[in-house]
Design goal:
The complex is a heterodimer of chains A (about 325) and B (about 425).
Chain A (H helix, E strand, L loop, with lengths): L2 H23 L4 H13 L3 E4 L6 H12 L3 E5 L6 H5 E7 L5 E7 L6 E5 L6 H13 L1 E4 L2 E4 L5 E6 L12 H4 L4 E4 L5 H11 L16 H13 L5 H13 L11 H6 E3 L3 H17 L7 H12 L4 E2 L1 H6 L3 H16 L1
Parallel strand pairs in A: 1-8, 1-9, 2-5, 5-8
Antiparallel strand pairs in A: 3-4, 6-7, 10-11
Helix pairs in contact in A: 1-2, 1-3, 2-11, 9-11, 9-12, 9-14, 11-12, 12-14
Chain B lengths: L8 H45 L2 H29 L3 H11 L5 H8 L3 H4 L4 H10 L6 H4 L6 H19 L32 E5 L26 H17 L1 H23 L11 E5 L2 H11 L53 E6 L39 E6 L3 H8 L11
Antiparallel strand pairs in B: 1-2, 3-4
Helix pairs in contact in B: 1-2, 1-3, 1-6, 1-8, 1-9, 2-9, 3-4, 4-6
Classes of the chains: A alpha/beta (about 325), B mainly alpha (about 425).
Chain lengths: ~325, ~425
């Protein structure tokens, strides 16, 4: 076996092991878990949307435990301050009587951060996550503090109880690699959830990666993802998809839905998300290169939260997922 | 997954891509050519059939449509053939999709041009995977058929149809009008506007299909002065040329016979006020006695029919030698000289021999054939310089034409001078 083939096999094994461990405690949501893991290995962040009580927090905590990484959770509320996220400086008195400011890291200093119900915090606090998500560092009082690697933010959104919430700004939405919808469990899954969570022995997650070297091992796997080969025609395809989501920028025969319902299309970050997600998919398929099908498979979670829909879309009941589906169909037509 | 990449894997792959490209492009070229042949032969077949069997109007309209469709088809076929062509840039992607290689080949071929990619971690694996899949997209496997059977079949079918049309074209020659001489009135009962007893009938069993323009599919182009020249005339000329090429002299004789029948039908239409006989399937001609003709001429004030061929008289031996009042006797006055055509030749009435027949009518040539005069002749102008009449030059010598010897007896009979019949009705 060549080193490259062995590396791919190693990646597949690690991925499958983590997924298997999470599946021990999380019933259902296989697709969502796969997307979350994909985003993790692609080096992005994930926005999870789902009603309360369907396992959002459990998934993230299980992921952290399976990967053997540090995990913090912030419950976003309206009175949460940016310093509560990033950390703050406090006056510390030294033994010699000298007083100095000492930086006390906030919960953002962890490998995995769960920002629960992020839309309940004010935009100011939400923005505190911006720098950490984009640049993997926090700046407090003019001093920048690097965050741990790997750094993975999972933010959750509650689609109900919209009263008293603050919609995430587009700039912050754009920083999430994927947006994952957690569907309500099926009756069979619901029975299993009730049964397993109320039994005498609750299943636990065992770390897949060795706890000491877990961050380094995770980073190694993420680097492998970056090395997957991407041909120019795949780059063109991904760029074409992004352009197709923008009204007036795509080809003439783009989708009518984009022209009618979309105010702003995906940003270049959307294209990056497509390719990074596709690279992980390629490795999972055992390929050293990205195929068009890989791009297609991650297009929906990578693009739907980047589209700014207009009022006509609201009134017509058209959501971004439908528009992305139309864009994919148009891209296939153009490719044929 | 453990594969060792041969050192020349990239070269082998490039050569195979080139082979696939050549094979496919040759296939596409054949496809285009065969379809063009099919289009051309099909168009020619339809045009030939139209030229041989359709009237001028139908030939012009349908021919133009067929030619336009063929031109459009040619453009489409050529464009489609060009699009089928497999360029160097597209070849790898096309093979990839066709052989379900999941982008392996396209990625390898495209990234081969970038030096950084060749040193990438996954490059050797990609190369090895492509090398292992070489048999999956071998040219013979990717494109098993060397020849586009469908296009070839279409081309052959259309060519065979064209060949058959050319081979059986003589069979499509219309039958010549049957000339029947009879002293007995034939099928005249019930013909409106004709209270005559015909002495001689020239019956032309040509199809009568209604309007004048397409009354006969074998009518010649440009016959009437009212007909518009232009496209119809061009189409008519083309149709005539096709018929002449395929049917030869036989067509010329048939066409003349058909034209005579058509003229007879037209004259009958005029005389009967355009009414259609019950025998609408046939055109026919009546040869009337001089009494009838002169009476009709006297009524209408028209000059006698211009065509000498139609000035024949009933020639029964028991007819009176001289007609009624005001009629000239045989050979007298302005009547035709009985010896106008000279003495009987010694030629035998068989084979291909011909005899010479002098005709007095001068022929005015039209564009394609003699145009028939139409309308009323203008009144003669007064001679402005009567003095010049003394020096007026003689008319040109009579033309002579060759006619088959077998026709000599008939022609002499038809054009002979006969005394007017006594029982002819005015």
């Amino acid at each position: 076996m060549t080193p490259a083939a062995a590396a791919i096999r190693d990646f597949q094994d690690a991925f499958a092991a983590v997924r298997g461990e999470i599946a021990k405690v999380v019933v259902g949501h296989e697709g969502a878990i796969e997307l979350i893991l994909t985003a993790f290995f692609a080096g992005g962040h994930v926005l999870i949307e789902g009603v309360p009580g369907i396992g959002k927090t459990l998934i993230v905590r299980s992921l952290a435990e399976a990967l053997g990484l540090t995990f913090n959770r912030i419950q976003f509320t309206i009175d949460l301050m940016p310093a509560d996220v990033t950390g703050t400086r406090v006056i510390n008195e030294a033994p010699d009587g000298r007083r100095e400011f000492l930086f006390v890291p906030g919960p953002v200093f962890a490998n995995l951060l769960l920002a629960d119900e992020i839309n309940r915090a004010t935009p100011k606090t939400q923005s505190a996550l911006l720098e950490s998500m984009a640049e993997q560092q926090v700046t407090v009082a003019g001093t920048s503090y690097p965050l741990a690697s790997p750094f993975f933010v999972l933010a959750t959104l509650n689609p109900i109880e919209m009263e008293g919430t603050y919609q995430l700004p587009e700039a912050q939405l754009d920083r999430f690699l994927f947006k994952v919808h957690l569907e309500y469990p099926s009756p069979a899954e619901l029975e299993r959830i009730i049964g397993t969570t109320t039994a005498a022995e609750v299943p636990t997650v065992r770390p897949v990666l060795p706890r000491e070297g877990a961050p380094a091992r995770a980073e190694e796997l993420k680097r492998l993802v970056r090395q997957v080969l991407v041909a120019p025609h795949i780059e063109r395809y991904a760029a074409g998809l992004v352009l197709l989501t923008s009204p007036g920028r795509g080809p003439e025969d783009g989708t009518e839905a984009v022209r009618r319902y979309v105010t702003y299309g995906a940003s270049p970050r959307g294209g990056q998300a497509l390719l990074l997600g596709a690279k992980v998919r390629a490795l999972l398929e055992g390929r050293p290169h990205v195929a068009v099908e890989d791009v297609d498979r991650v297009a929906l979670p990578a693009l739907r939260h980047r589209l700014v829909m207009n009022f006509a879309a609201d009134t017509a009941g058209v959501d971004a997922a439908q528009v992305v589906d139309g864009v994919l169909a148009a891209a296939r037509r153009l490719r044929a | 997954m453990a594969r060792s990449t041969p050192p020349d894997a990239s070269d082998t792959i490039a050569v195979q891509v080139r082979r696939v490209r050549w094979r496919w492009n040759f296939h596409a070229l054949q496809w285009t050519l065969y379809l063009l042949v099919a289009l051309g032969a099909g168009t020619a077949t339809v045009l030939l059939l139209l030229a041989l069997r359709a009237g001028i109007a139908l030939f012009a309209a349908a021919g133009a449509s067929v030619v336009a469709a063929a031109a459009t088809g040619t453009v489409l076929v050529v464009r489609s053939g060009w699009r089928r062509r497999l360029g160097r840039a597209r070849a790898a992607l096309w093979i990839d999709r066709r052989a379900a290689l999941e982008g392996r080949l396209a990625t390898l071929v495209e990234l081969e041009r970038t030096p950084a990619a060749r040193t990438a971690f996954f490059w050797p694996l990609l190369e090895a995977e492509n090398a292992a899949r070489l048999p999956a997209w071998a040219p013979e496997r990717l494109l098993p058929d060397n020849i586009p059977a469908g296009a070839l079949g279409a081309g052959l079918g259309a060519s065979v149809a064209l060949f058959l049309t050319l081979a059986f074209a003589p069979e499509l020659l219309p039958s010549r009008p049957e000339i029947v001489y009879s002293d007995e009135p034939q099928r005249l009962a019930g013909i409106e506007g004709l209270g005559v007893d015909a002495r001689r009938l020239l019956i032309a069993p040509t199809e009568y299909s209604g309007e004048r323009g397409d009354s006969s599919p074998f009518a010649s182009a440009g016959g009437d002065g009212e007909e518009a020249w232009g496209l119809a005339h061009l189409a008519g000329g083309l149709q005539e040329r096709i018929r002449e090429r395929l049917w030869g002299k036989e067509w010329t004789r048939t066409r003349d016979a058909l034209a005579r029948a058509e003229r007879a039908r037209s004259r009958r239409d005029r005389e009967t006020g355009g009414g259609r006989s019950e025998d609408a399937g046939s055109a026919w001609e009546l040869a009337r006695t001089p009494n009838q003709r002169n009476a009709r001429a006297g009524e209408s004030g028209d000059a006698a029919p211009h065509d000498a061929a139609r000035r024949e008289h009933a020639g029964d031996g028991d007819e009176p030698a001289a007609g009624g009042t005001g009629e000239a006797g045989p050979g007298a006055g302005t009547a035709t000289d009985p010896n106008l055509f000279g003495t009987t030749s010694e030629a035998t009435a068989s084979g291909e021999e011909t005899f010479e027949l002098a005709i007095t009518a001068r022929v005015r040539a039209g564009r394609m054939e003699p145009r028939r005069p139409s309308g009323e002749a203008p009144p003669p102008a007064l001679d402005a310089h009567p003095a010049l009449a003394a020096h007026q030059r003689q008319e040109a010598a009579m033309h002579r034409m060759a006619a088959p010897a077998a026709y000599e007896a008939i022609v002499r009979e038809v054009f002979a001078h006969h005394p007017p019949s006594g029982d002819a009705r005015p």
